Amino acid sequence: MVTTEAPASPSALRSAWPALLIFAVLALVPVVAPLLGAGSYALTIVSRIMIFAIAAVSLDLILGYGGLVSFGHAAFIGLGAYAVGILADAGVGEGLVLLPAAMLAAAVFALLTGAISLKTRGVHFIMITLAFGQMAYFTMTSLSAYGGDDGLTLWAKPLVAGFKWLNDRSAFHYVVLALLIAAWGLCRAVTRSRFGRVLRGCRENEERMRALGYDPFAYRLAAYVIAGAIAGLAGALLAIQADFISPAYMSWQRSGELIVMVVLGGIGSLHGAIIGAAAFLLTEELLSGVTEHWRLIFGPLLILVVLFLRGGLGGLLGKIRHD
């Protein structure tokens, strides 16, 4: 069971300031963007950033704190998206049903595949998560009833308690922001709890944790399921925003992009995962307008960040405040 630490101390509040600053800036976007003449476009881009930030935060939970390099994390995003699409196709249009269903579908998949994957370590774990991710990908491409390779279209936005709030870009922006804060808060609570300390201990010295009476497999599996459920939520939101679900959501390339986001923001830094997602997607948006081979430019930039910013962009933000 996850037990959080005692009431927030001044040091805990200080460590949370980068995330609080990020959330404050994101909250101002719907107000400031129209003044700059970039209303709907800015809201679309920023909402997409927040959605992928939710997925990146979930990956950082198992990568940064558990040392689990998953190359199949995008499968959870795709399953969350398809859960929404399949239920919507069956006539379920209530968001308060669709979002939990997406999280449940991804959590069940994480539980089943994690129980097998976590029996392995290192490169073997990377390869088996990649294999499960590709299995999910090819399964969805073969389901012709739900579009196959062509994907699945959502013909209407889900309702929220019977209201069409998600049809409004600003309302959707704040819904996604609220869920991002909730995902960050949950992962922060997990990592700062005894559960999180045991998870980090298993990453550092598994044998010592066993000697202390802890079962590393159980803790890792629990973290893996939590991360899968949060990524499933991101997939559901991605489907709602785009009104479309594609098998490409769960491709291995998408999993690789999520790892890049975490590395770019700083591994083991939850607010860094948010910054990494923003940096990756904004760079993609800018460079793709210059050349379709934008990754050739982005690659060296990522290498420079890894070499000279050991804590990633998230660590750089902390250094700026300290200075």
From TrEMBL:
Transmembrane stretches, start-end: 16-37, 49-76, 96-118, 125-146, 171-190, 217-238, 258-282, 294-313
Subcellular location: Cell membrane
InterPro entries according to UniProt: ABC_transp_permease, LivM-like
Keywords: Cell membrane, Membrane, Transmembrane, Transmembrane helix
Keyword flag Cytoplasm: no
Pfam families: BPD_transp_2 (PF02653)
Its membrane topology: Multi-pass membrane protein
Location, primary (coarse class): membrane
Domain of life: Bacteria
Name of this protein: Branched-chain amino acid transport system permease protein
